[in-house]
Structures are given as C-alpha cells and as structure tokens.
Amino acid sequence: MNAGSTSLETLGPALLGRLPALVQTPAYDRTALQPGMAHLGVGAFHRCHQAEYTDDLLALRVDRWGIVGINIRPPTLADTLGRQGGLYTRLIRENSHVDARVIGSIVEVVDSQESAAPALDVLSSPDIELVTMTVTEKGYCHIPSSGALDLDHPDIVHDLANPETPRSVPGILARALERRRATHGRPLTLLSCDNIPTNGVILENVVRTFAERRGNGLADWIAGNAAFPCAMVDRIAPAVTRDDFDSVEQWFGYHDGAVAVGEPFRQWVIEQKFAGRMPRWDLVGATFVDDVTPFEHLKMRVLNGAQTTLATLGVLAGLEHTSDAIADPLLSAFIRRMLIEETLPTLLPVPGMEPLAYVEQSLGRLKNTAIRHRNHQIATDGSQKIVQRLLNPIRDRLGQGASIGLLSVPVAGWMAYLIQASSRFGKRWPVSDPYAAKVAGIADATGHDARALASAILAIDTIFDPGLAANGAFREAVTSALNELLSDDPMAAVRHSLEQDEVARLKRSKQSAL
Ligand code: CS2
C-alpha cells in the first residue's frame, strides 16, 4: 500500500525516534540483529504472532535472531514492509481498547512470487537454521482426509517434473534441503504454524514423499538432518482493511502500509523436537511440550470449530462478521451447546487447562467487536478446514456411540455455502475454495434435492473419509440440516437441531433418574 493522497511520513527506521509516546518501539538495537530464521507466508497472522513473540524475545536480549520474511504468493512485500525496513505497527484491539507497538523482528523481506529462486537462496543459506511457515491449509498440497501428498495436484506434478524450479511449498522445501545437503550440510528445523492437524507430521510427510520421488537419497538425508515439530498457534488476526491503515494515520500521524491487527489473546505450543538451535520463545510465553496433540484438538475443535460454524451459518443468516454472528441469540445458544455437549467430550485431557473455561474464554474472544473478522474470510477454503474442525470430532463422537446432531449442522453449512455459490443457485456470493468448482458442478447437475446433493458431496473421499460418509446417523443429520439451510428459512436447521438435542437430553435425564 503506498502513501496515497496523504502527505504523512511513512514508518521506517528514521521515524522510530519520533513516534508518539503511545506507540511502543523495539526495545533493542535492530542493527545488531542477524538473520537466523526465515518465515514463509508473511501475512496478518505472522505479523501478529511469531514476529511478535520474536520481538518480545529480542527485547530480553537472549539472542539476536532476526526473521527473513518470504512470500511465494501475493501480496508482494517490497512496497510495504520492504520500504519500511521491515517495521510495522501491530495493533491489539479489544472493543474500545487499542494497544500499538512497532515490531522490529523482521530484518529483511524477499519476494519470490515470480520464481522460487530468491526463496531458495534464503532457505538454503547456512545462516538459516529454522524455517517457520504460515502458508494456509492448502499450501501443503495434501489430501485433507488422509494427510498424504496429493500427487495429482498441478503444482506437485509440475515440481516433480521440474524440481529445480519448484512452485509448491513441498517442492520448494525439498529443493532447499537438497541444496543444503549439496553445499554445507547444516540441519534445519521446519516449523509449520498452520491450523492443520499434526501439522509437523503432515509437513514432514509431504516433503518426504516429494523427496522420495526424486530418488537420489534426499529422503534419507532429510530423515537425519531435518526436524518437523508440530505446533499449535493461536491469535485471531483478520485480513487488514483500509480502516486499519486509516486508523494508524488518524491516531498516530504516520503512514504504515503493513499494519497488522489482532486480539489480546495469543498462544503458541511447540513440540520440543528440533534439528539445531531454537529461539527461546518459551521465555516469552510460548510452551515447549512433548506432545502438542491435546492442545491442537482443543484449539481446532473449540475455537476454530466455532469460527467455521459461525462463519458459514453467519453468511447464510446474512451476517457479516464473527462478532455479528455470535451476537445473534440463536447462533450464540447453538454454538455454546454444540461445543459443550458434543465437542468437549471428544477432547484429550490438556495439561493445565480446563476445557469448559476454555470454551467460555473462546466465546468471549469471538464477541470482540473491534476484530472485524469477515465470515466470508473464515469460510474461505472450508474444504481444507472442516476435517480437523468438525469431521474429526464427529468421527470420535460416533466412535463413542454419542450424538452428532449439532456438529452435523455446520458440515451442512459448509455444503450450503458452496452450493449457493453455484450458478444453479444464483451465485449468491463469490467463494474461494479448491473444491468450489467440484461442489458447483454437483449443484448444477443435481438441482435442489438436498438428499442427492448431500449424497454426492459426501462421496468426495478426499474430504470425507468413506467410513464416516457411510454412517447412517451422520448422513441423515447432514441431509436434514442441508434441506433446511437451503430453504427460505435457513436458521430453521439451527432451531430444529437445538430442539431435537433438548428432547434427547430430557430423555437421557429421565432414563438416568429411573
Ligand atoms: C480462522 C483462523 O480464517 C480462519 O480459518 O479460523 O485464521 C483463526 O482466526 C486462527 O486460527 C486463530 O488462531
């Protein structure tokens, strides 16, 4: 974003000493930093999360690791972060409260959208010991239902044929590791910070499968010299809007083209499995653990599950943001009941955390009206999100012989969201999802029969595990919710599932009283 019509000065190292007192500045000498880690995917989340933790750590002066930020997809970084010397304003907002701080941990930015070469030069450098990444769920090129590398993915097909000029994340990482092996042989930790289940395992799997296909011993070298820890990351940091840029100008009197906005809450749990040195993020609030799984289930099933539910049902109800959806009494009652009745019993015990309190805390976070998180943004790439957020807890519930009537509603919500974007249903809104065309094709061919629609979508086995898709109770619950969600009164699906749950609850309590 350029300075536009304003004549205000743009944030940069020269302005640091002249910022209003309300804006905190880096509490360390940035010129002494050394690029020790790279981050792939410098978006709003990275700027509000890993880069902030690193800024906290740098302020403790324990080490001097700066971040090299790399984008291999749009947007470009040179015109925003680049021209600001890596500096940006991080706003933490909660209702009327604002906390502003300039973050200084990003020391260099690299645009590698046109070709992987600039990214590969950084990732294969001996100075880089760690690569963190937020490349979105679909960046891993895996099959959501199994976690395996999707060998039919066009970018993977391309990269296997042209391994020296890769386009995909697995192809780029495999090539960087190959160059490290050939040049200096130094180990590398690759830390996924995306919301996919067992993200380190999936990352390792896609990179290893890709390397195995190369058949030059690379996979063995990777096994001995790279580590892929799992991590749970959390902070709500939506896409930045024009309003956010304008706010910084109005409140603080300077222009910043790389503002990031997040909520106060943040969490980072990292599996202690590193190939070499790691930044001591544990000194600034991150937790290093042996097993991330319980934390990951808690976060993806409760917070992210609630977000996806509110997003798709919110769009169907004509609501714009998460905070609007949760302010709706029906949706708010539904989400609380769904999480407490159906999601919580699927969770593993989480050391030091009380699940019910976590649910209440999560619902509180979603009510934050200063966080303008659009329902359409969260609904983007839903096909890559519903397995870990909704389908895995449903599978666990069915395994316990327990009810799934509430969790099935947002699954049908995801279907209805994509179905109604098809031409047969009047293209009610634009969508972005790798499965949008597939679902639109089903909708165009099938028409308005909810049973036939649900059946055809449940047959997509790269999303729905066939065992789950064959389950009668699940099919019935999804079909009946979809039928209502596609009607003129979509929220009837939400009302009815709550009523049915209430009836079942009464029945259970009568039985246990006998
Ligand atoms: C959101 C997440 O867009 C989405 O899919 O659910 O980005 C969410 O805000 C973060 O995971 C919160 O940590």
UniProtKB/TrEMBL annotation:
Classification via SUPFAM superfamilies: 6-phosphogluconate dehydrogenase C-terminal domain-like (SSF48179), NAD(P)-binding Rossmann-fold domains (SSF51735)
UniProt cross-references to Pfam families, sorted A to Z: Mannitol_dh (PF01232), Mannitol_dh_C (PF08125)
Entry's Gene Ontology molecular function annotations: oxidoreductase activity, acting on the CH-OH group of donors, NAD or NADP as acceptor
Domain Mannitol dehydrogenase N-terminal residues, every copy: 38-282
Organism, as annotated: Mesorhizobium loti R88b
Domain Mannitol dehydrogenase C-terminal: 291-485
Protein name: Mannitol dehydrogenase family protein
Spans traversing the lipid bilayer: none
Signal peptide: none
Keywords: Oxidoreductase
InterPro entries found in the cross-reference section: 6-PGluconate_DH-like_C_sf, 6PGD_dom2, Mannitol_DH, Mannitol_DH/Oxidoreductase, Mannitol_DH_C, Mannitol_DH_N, NAD(P)-bd_dom_sf
